[in-house]
Design a protein that fits this description.
- Two copies of one chain form a homodimer.
- In chain A, strands 1, 5, 6, 7, 10, 11, 12, 13, 14, 15 and 16 form an eleven-stranded mixed sheet that branches.
- The first copy, chain A, has a domain at about 1-155: UDP-N-acetylmuramoyl-L-alanine:D-glutamate ligase.
- With about 325 residues, chain A is α/β, with parallel strands linked by helices.
- Chain A has helices at about 40-50, 60-75, 125-145, 160-170, 180-190, 200-205, 210-220, 260-275, 280-295, 305-310; strands spanning about 1-5, 10-15, 25, 30-35, 55-60, 90, 95, 100-110, 115-120, 145-150, 175-180, 195, 225-230, 235-240, 245-250, 315-320.
- Chain A contains ten helices and 16 strands.
């Protein structure tokens, strides 16, 4: 079982409109809702890959009820028509709080294909609720093959929360992945997680460098045992104890990038649990990520595209020497 | 008791953002929710004026539950801090349906003060649900001092629905006000409601004329016993069996016009039930409408502004002769 933690879950609502006109009244043509937050997205992809997963974090209020109901309906018991029969279970171990789970609204403009995102602030979590979560988390982590800590912190949670959760997972002897940003990432990485997966912006914010290989190696020095940076259409860059690799999709893909990072996390986690060599883990993560961009529904992946892309991902080992700044002339050639 | 009908109720959500940037991710700073739909807004203002009111229409799903809970909390039992102790009750006589009540989202850009509105489509109402509503409506209308039919029709309701509701109210000997637009207004006005309150656009769509006095009188010929057109900042124009009047606020007011038309309806209805002469009804409606524009919260009215504006509304009787096109030179002078 893989445990994913989403402290700031969300009810993700998608509105389709003919065209979004600011400062006017817009009719929404179509409304859809699904359980959201990075760890929940990761668990959904893990289940599609055949890995049992357990989701935890906080949930509350009417939107929390809606999230749980939709999550239960996604399981094999009530799976939507597109789910494969081989899907594994996503088990709900969310902790109920007094506050109300936030909504996120993605307004998709059908003329341009662009999305305008509106994110509500999360509910404030009380110290007693955090304490109840920690007790539950310790029990779940002890049974997990791997733990993923994903996304932002809701109001009320201390900025070192992920560092605390990393230490607890390590104390239980479980591999732990951290996917967050800003100060929670800075504190969390110092607690020595097995894997961190920043995107280019998060990595630059952490290290001060926009040169990916240099920044990835710097992030390892800050405490990440392995660091896999997601570089958008350019794929992934990994710095690990076994070496460094770049993994890129065979062609640039166009579509909705929502959830592509979460699919990459699911690819890395499943590869870790299956003890795949790094190049195979990275190829899987890149193919899943590209297949997510190609899927018509935000945050889902196109299974056919995944199967087609997987053998065609190019994984190349990087020099073990620190790379020069990429814009500097390579005078040693 | 005044009965207000809102067939397409809504949970009105307001998002405050520093600035709304299309095609980007926007953090919502503040979220508020309240029961919405024109008839519910009218009932809220009637209650503030001391008139007991009953709201009916359709409600369903989680958003319907939220709407009812918020509506119950607005009553004297759980009134918000700003409500006066003299407020009368708003009683919930909404009919439950299988579909889910729509949400409307008003995104208020705090930099410009502008609002971007996103309106979900309403739930589809089944023939059995409409039949259940009609039975309930007949019983409620028979006990009402006046009936107001407000807003758009949800999917599944036939376009002559308001005409049917006007006829049932008239058969029960109850005065009935109609505030809608498009084909439901065209059909509804032919059933001879006591009062219709179109805005300038609705009136032009109905009559083909943008000359307000001409169009208002045309709307009377189509079946409205009295027609009160709301002309935005210019106030109201009334054509009634007792004469025609213009009523205008003493100064142009600036603010959020959301709900100003609903406040005008509440002013007209309360004046009808209190048997006020037309000039007093119109002055009340104009003062309430302007005090709604001035209130910080959308759809509420500023009580102090109302008391200040009421004696200063200018009501002028119009000639009983059909007015010439306003842009034509007045050659008879």
């Amino acid at each position: 079982m893989i445990l994913t933690v989403t402290l700031n879950t969300a009810l993700d609502i998608t509105y389709r409109t003919a065209a979004l006109t600011p400062h006017a009244t817009n009719r929404v043509a179509e409304v859809s809702e699904r359980p959201g937050g990075k760890g929940i997205n990761v668990a959904r992809v893990l289940a599609a890959l055949g890995h049992e997963s357990v989701v935890t974090g906080f949930v509350g209020g009417r939107t929390g009820d809606a999230l749980r109901e939709l999550l239960a309906a996604e399981g094999p018991g009530g799976q939507p028509a597109h789910a494969a029969v081989t899907d594994a279970l996503v088990t709900d171990a969310l902790v109920t709080i007094a506050g109300t789970t936030r909504r996120t609204i993605a307004v998709v403009d059908e003329t341009t294909g662009d999305t305008t995102q509106l994110n509500e602030p999360g509910p404030t979590v009380t110290p007693a609720e955090w304490a109840a979560f920690l007790t539950s988390y310790e029990g779940l982590a002890a049974r997990a093959d791997a733990v993923a800590l994903c996304g932002s912190l809701p109001p009320g949670i201390h900025v070192g929360a992920y560092a605390e959760l990393v230490r607890l997972a390590r104390a239980a002897g479980r591999p732990v992945l951290l996917d967050t940003s800003g100060e929670p990432l800075r504190r969390g990485i110092a607690a020595r997680p097995d894997l961190v997966k920043p995107n280019a912006d998060e990595l630059a914010q952490l290290t001060g460098s926009r040169e990916p290989l240099r920044a990835t190696r710097d992030a390892r020095r800050r405490g990440g045992r392995a660091v896999v940076a997601s570089l958008g259409a350019a794929g992934l860059l990994a710095a690990t104890p076994d070496g460094s690799w770049r993994a890129a999709p065979p062609t640039a893909v166009r579509g909705n990038p929502t959830g592509a990072g979460d699919s990459a996390v699911a690819g890395l986690l499943s590869g870790l649990v299956e003890r795949l060599p790094w190049p195979e883990r990275l190829a899987r993560a890149v193919a899943l990520s590209a297949a997510t961009v190609l899927a018509p529904a935000a945050g889902e992946f196109d299974r056919e595209a995944y199967a087609d892309l997987l053998p065609r991902v190019a994984v190349t080992e990087q020099s073990s020497q620190p790379e020069q700044e990429s814009h500097a002339p390579r005078q040693h050639r």
